[in-house]
Design brief:
Elements: E1 5-10, H1 16-28, E2 33-36, E3 60-62, H2 68-74, E4 80-84, E5 91-92, E6 101-106, H3 115-120, E7 123-126, H4 135-148, H5 157-163
Parallel strand pairs: 1-2, 1-6, 2-3, 4-6, 4-7, 5-7
């Protein structure tokens, strides 16, 4: 049986709303842990966009840096390092096959991933958009792509019942 393990690495994130939204996405897509470097996020006191309180069940870990040594120590053995950013020579996300165990590293909102990290990565991918998306949007798109290409994509009404808001009682009555 395959055992997925998914980590998200955020390089010195500056926006508490982006980190909160990343945590919400991590909960929705069953990420195992979120790692972040730098001190900018630590200056903030709450994650107002983590409305599902994913940070209470998914580790949000500050590591010294997302350098080569720290990356390897922070994830399980056999984990592939995947940098996600607008980097020349990267593979377009629609053509990427996700590894079973992955650490997806994203650059900061106002910068990019360090060249040493890119050089160490097993894969470098990008979302083929015109211009750059915000950090949380990029994480959501990548995690959705991973889900869409997996066996978990064939979910049905039971998942909907478990996942929907209590105020949502709408049903599809007619199908074409």
């Amino acid at each position: 049986m395959k055992k997925e393990f998914v980590s998200i690495g955020l390089t010195n994130p500056k926006s508490i709303s982006n980190v909160g939204s990343v945590m919400r996405a991590a909960g929705c897509y069953q990420v195992n842990q979120v790692l972040y470097s730098g001190q900018r996020y630590d200056r903030a006191s709450k994650m107002s966009t983590d409305t599902k309180k994913a940070s209470s069940s998914i580790p949000l870990i500050n590591i010294e840096s997302l350098g080569v040594t720290t990356m390897i120590e922070a994830v399980e053995e056999g984990t592939k390092i995947v940098c996600v950013d607008l980097i020349q020579g990267a593979t377009p996300l629609p053509h990427f096959i996700h590894p079973e165990k992955a650490l997806y590293i994203f650059g900061p909102e106002d910068g990019t991933i360090d060249q040493k990290v890119v050089d160490r990565a097993d894969y470098v991918v990008f979302v083929p958009t015109i211009g750059c998306m915000n950090l949380a949007a990029s994480v959501n798109v990548l995690l959705y792509d991973r889900l869409a290409k997996s066996d978990r994509a064939d979910a049905g009404d039971e998942l909907i019942r478990q996942s929907k808001d209590v105020n949502n009682n709408v049903k599809v009555r007619n199908s074409i």
